[in-house]
Amino acid sequence: MKCRIVLLMALLISLNVNAQTDSARKQSPVYKVHVKYEMPAAITGLILFGSVANPAVVKNASITKEELSKLSPQHVNRFDRSVITDNAQRYANAISRSDFLLNASILSPALLALDKKIRKDWLDIISMYMMTHAVNNTVFVATVGLVHRARPLVYNTSLPIEERTGKNRTNSFYSGHVSNSAASTFFIVKVFTDYHQIKGWKRIMLYGAAAVPPALAGHYRIQGGRHFRTDVITGLLVGAGSGILVPEFHRCKTEKRISVTPYYAASASGLSISLKL
């Protein structure tokens, strides 16, 4: 996790350097960000996550030999069960690839600095980006702290019992690698499409492309015996939600985006709520 915080700081420096030449240009703001409050809060949240919350989760996510003896693959749902028998010899290589994809995804928003319209607002963008990960990691810690699910490798009898027990073994749900990767890639698409007002199928296709890196990271997390399919799917959905919703909440509202209209009919009455994204 400390590595991720360093990567986020490197991204801040990258965007800062690339933004200097365009700092004087003006345009109608796309987002309203309270940088002096949000950036310190986000940085504090990320540091606390890396130094306190995540280590506590890893420590508490332990399993003993006695607890292991009570587990059975039959307790795992049919959709997830097949990944338990994955070849343990490829675990290390798969984990290495998933780590690479995670780190590349975290740095990928630096590509936004290539866009002149976006990079002049670099401080707003990096503040939102850090807030995105702070929110995403908060949801992750809250979930993993409540849901104790043994990782697939715990069930894999081809591994020595020492590798199946100990710390960091019952925090399978959900995948933090996939969630953080998705938060980063979906953030890029959200910001880019907001600045350039891209709608319709083009926007959908860009979001489809954003799903590729976290999906690949999830594939390798499964191959590495760290997560089940449902862990990966959940991580992608949560990360994508963070990457989209945090910028959306900062959007400058130039029009009425949420409308509530009462309706009446012979059989029922109520409220009609519409959200324009």
Automatic annotation (TrEMBL):
- One Pfam family assigned to this protein is PAP2
Q: Where are the transmembrane segments?
A: none
**Residues forming coiled coils:** none
Q: Which SUPFAM superfamilies match?
A: Acid phosphatase/Vanadium-dependent haloperoxidase
What domain of life is recorded for the organism?
Answer: Bacteria
Ranges of residues in domain Phosphatidic acid phosphatase type 2/haloperoxidase: 145-250
The family database entries (InterPro entries) matched by this protein are listed as: PAP2/HPO, PAP2/HPO_sf
* Segment forming the signal sequence: 1-19
Keywords (alphabetical) are: Signal
The molecule here is called PAP2 superfamily protein
